[in-house]
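Moderator note: this is an archived Q&A kept for reference. The question asked for a predicted structure of one protein chain; the sequence and the answer are reproduced below.
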Amino acid sequence: MLSRLSIQNYAIIDELDVDFSSNLNIITGETGAGKSIILGALGLILGGRSDSGALKNREKKCIVEGTFKNELLDDHVTTFLKERELDILDELVVRREIAPNGKSRAFVNDTPVNLSQLNQLSSLLVDLHQQFDTLEIGESDFQREVLDALAGNFPLLKTYRQYFSQLQATRRKLDTLREQKNQFNKEFDYHQFQFNELEEAGFKENELEDLELELKTQTNAEGIRLALGKTYHGLEESEEPIIRQLKTMVNALQPYCDLHADIPSLIQRLQSAYIELQDIADETDRISNHISADPALIEKINDRLSLGYKLLKKHGVKTTEELLAIKRELEEKLQAVLNIDDEITAIEKDFAQQIQQADEMADKISKARYAQIAPLEKKVNIMLAQVGMPNARLQVAIKKTNLSDAGFDEIEFLFDANKSNQFQPLRKVASGGELSRLMLCIKSLVATSMNLPTLIFDEIDTGISGEAAKQVGVIMKELAGARQVICITHQPQIAGKADAHYLVYKAVKGDSITTGVRLLNVDERIVAIAKMLSGEKPTAAALENAREMVMN
């Protein structure tokens, strides 16, 4: 609910503050007094285009600020604020500033926002109806919401949308799997060839590294044998073998064991060295006897390494383990091709069940919508006659389409202004005034069922008077029982229904003219309405008529 509108330095407005009631607010005033200027200023905080030429004083900035009661904000507004990390306070303050250089800034609760964000928020706060505007009544989303509101479909739609969201997730998963399968199928033969090549090679863990070592051993066999032979000769077969020398040393020290305390330990160490060197000599002899160059083995190793090097280079790796890892990965990909069909079949089954569930729920929603078409058409057409459009007719058309998050209905409001039986979509044939009055009729029917923002009507009374104007006032009064309504009007019959009546006037301030707004008391309202009936100097009959309008 718009509780306060403040305007500074805009057009012919120096400074202006208006406090609105929560019900029906009527704004009247002479032509040219500045009613449209107030709406123009309001349009700035709704995201409208700014123009430095609109500044009254070119040396000061223009500020327009709207204050909205926070406790009356709906969930959509609260969600908007939370998603953008904007403060949620007792009051929601939307401000627009225009500097003398033409630069514009917007704020929500003193936090800067861009115009796109301001537009999104304002659409949740204020519904402004002006002649020649593109009104939401011509949009299919709003038309569908009207039927859903009348049908009480919103709780069922909330549940349906959860089902539909799951359905969409399953569809995306199924599409992904099918795409994977197509990709797998394209690569299957190549992966199979690579796997068969590695499988046929049959490399074991660390095999290439072990073969490289074995090849080095084979190619250096003669040198290894010579070195081993020399070692063995020095230990066992030279003129004075090291092992025999150690034994001689032990024998030489043995007689003096008891004569010196350190000799036994020396003998012990020499005996240990003797045993160790004897063992080394035996091992050296054994190894030497088994070392020999085998040309056939060398050729076999070279062939094996050649195959291994070729595969390492092909796959861009350096070790046997990396090659085996590639083999395991290829095996998994080949297995995935075999498994993916089973997975696709299972998900297709789930998807079919989910479509059936969503279809059944959408059908239930659709039937509830169909049930409201005739009553809506009847009520709206009666109301259209009441508001001065006796020849106008509304017709609701529903066509079944693909499932969406709103069901499977495509809804179109069709309009015939002249009983021609040639119904066309609203957005193509209805004039601005017709759309405004039609919107008033429809929104009055769904005001208690939909989250409607503050409704502002301008020029809704164009082309009507008398009983039709009175009926517009009656409808507005009923609508204002559920939602805040602000209406700029020239019709006394509508002004008489106000909960709060504001007069826009021009005043001379110094050498300039400025616009002012004031809330009228009962007596002032009677005079203002009487002037609307009979002119600047109202007659006694006009005053009495005005009094009756206000009191009733």
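Archived answer notes: The longest strand covers residues 393-404.
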